[in-house]
């Protein structure tokens, strides 16, 4: 067995944006679509100028032409256009990093299970180094079986593959020769540079709700990043995470809770943010257009850049004190 231990990163000390009502909460914004929409550089510049703490980009490398499963994300048997047009998150975030100075850069989420962990470790470390330590890795196992299979990943072992991939990348980020010998990931001693900008490495948030996501976050994550639809659902998840940490002697206080929630710019209220903060969120990542489920993603046209700019400005005006 090679180097497969992992180090626990302390929650990063981010600048907090004050929101209307006198409380503080890290408020991020989800990049809504691919580069055919508002380019990520422009979106990131605007987000930083408006006072958002972070920008988040997710991925679906491929969308199967035929989807056999009955997934809750489907609308009339198909995935919304926003899923199909999403760009590569690392390339989008690299463009965002080049034109901003303070904005944190989050993958929300990166489907680690669909990538080679050695190459991904290199890409993430390079982006973190170039951005001077602003990267946050939201790591997902994936839910779309047909996509995972098309990418060559075994759906049944995706959670094990996720854990082993993160363990392997943490070893690779040490700056010393590292090897890994697991059930899904196996490679001989190699050196992977550059190192991330931060000595403790890149913080990894487990991007999944439900019992399995909570269990994985408690076991090896630096934090938890679920999609939620109400402060009450987040509060239940946070309590389950706290209980799971107690069962495994994990320090719950070391975990950072971020949550993705859909918000309509026209109806956003500071009281909602306060409710999520009271429920246990350290960061709220807002998905423009309404609820963060598949049906509502149609409310935000991925090709309407002007509408995206207006929505972002309206959202900041309602929520942030600048």
Give the structure's gist in a few sentences.
With 322 residues, the chain is of the alpha/beta class.
Question: What does this molecule look like?
Answer:
- With 322 residues, the chain is α/β, with parallel strands linked by helices.
- The protein has a single domain, classed as Luciferase-like domain (TIM Barrel, Alpha-Beta Barrel), CATH 3.20.20.30.
- It contains 10 helices and 11 strands.
- Strands 2-3-4-5-8-9-10-11 form an 8-stranded parallel beta barrel, surrounded by 6 helices.
- Helix 1 (40-50) crosses helix 3 and helix 7 packs across helix 8.
- The protein is globular, with a radius of gyration of 19 Å.
- The termini are far apart.
- The relative contact order is 0.19.
Which secondary structure elements does this structure contain, and how are they paired or packed?
Layout: E1 17-19, E2 23-30, H1 40-50, E3 54-57, H2 81-85, H3 89-98, E4 104-111, H4 117-130, E5 135-140, H5 145-150, H6 158-172, E6 178-181, E7 186-190, E8 204-206, H7 210-220, E9 223-224, H8 231-247, E10 256-263, H9 270-279, E11 283-288, H10 305-319
Parallel strand pairs: 2-3, 2-11, 3-4, 4-5, 5-8, 8-9, 9-10, 10-11
Antiparallel strand pairs: 1-2, 6-7
Helix pairs in contact: 1-3, 1-10, 3-4, 4-6, 7-8, 8-9
Assigned CATH superfamily: Luciferase-like domain
By CATH, the architecture is named: Alpha-Beta Barrel
Order of helix and strand elements from N to C terminus = EEHEHHEHEHHEEEHEHEHEH
What's the helical proportion of residues? 25-40%
Task: Please tell me how large the radius of gyration is.
Answer: 19 Å
Classified by CATH, the class is: Alpha Beta
Number of DSSP-assigned strands: 11
Count of DSSP helices?
A: 10
Strand order of the largest sheet: 2-3-4-5-8-9-10-11
CATH third-tier fold name = TIM Barrel
Mean pLDDT: 88
Assembly type of the chains comes to single chain
Q: Kindly name the structural category.
A: alpha/beta
Count of discrete domains: 1
What does the largest sheet look like? 8 strands, parallel, barrel
Overall geometric form: globular
Weakly predicted, low-confidence segments = 1-22, 291-300
Distance between the termini: 52 Å
Beta-strand content: 15-25%
């Amino acid at each position: 067995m090679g180097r497969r231990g992992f180090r626990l990163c302390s929650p990063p000390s981010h600048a907090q944006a004050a929101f209307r009502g006198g409380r503080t909460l890290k408020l991020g914004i989800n990049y809504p679509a691919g580069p055919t929409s508002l380019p990520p550089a422009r979106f990131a510049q605007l987000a930083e100028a408006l006072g958002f703490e972070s920008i988040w980009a997710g991925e679906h490398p491929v969308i199967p032409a035929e989807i056999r499963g009955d997934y809750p994300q489907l609308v009339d048997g198909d995935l919304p256009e926003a899923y199909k047009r999403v760009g590569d998150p690392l390339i989008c975030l690299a463009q965002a990093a080049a034109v901003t100075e303070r904005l944190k850069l989050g993958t929300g989420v990166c489907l680690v299970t669909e990538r080679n962990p050695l190459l991904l470790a290199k890409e993430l470390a390079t982006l973190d180094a170039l951005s001077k330590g602003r990267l946050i890795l939201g790591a997902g196992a994936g839910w779309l079986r047909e996509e995972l299979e098309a990418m060559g990943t075994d759906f049944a072992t995706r959670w094990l593959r996720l854990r082993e991939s993160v363990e392997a990348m943490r070893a690779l980020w040490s700056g010393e020769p590292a090897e890994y010998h697991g059930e899904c990931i196996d490679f001989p001693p190699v050196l992977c540079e550059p190192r991330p900008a931060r000595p403790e490495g890149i913080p990894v948030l487990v991007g999944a709700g439900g019992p399995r996501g909570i269990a994985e976050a408690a076991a090896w994550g630096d934090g938890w990043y679920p999609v939620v639809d109400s402060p009450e659902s987040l509060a239940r998840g946070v309590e389950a995470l706290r209980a799971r940490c107690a069962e495994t002697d994990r320090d719950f206080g070391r975990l950072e809770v971020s949550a993705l929630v859909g918000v309509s710019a026209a109806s956003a209220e500071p009281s909602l943010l306060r409710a999520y903060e009271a429920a246990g969120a350290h960061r709220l990542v807002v998905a423009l257009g309404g609820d963060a489920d598949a049906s509502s993603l149609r409310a935000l046209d991925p090709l309407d850049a002007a509408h995206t700019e207006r929505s972002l400005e309206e959202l900041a005006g309602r929520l942030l004190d600048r």
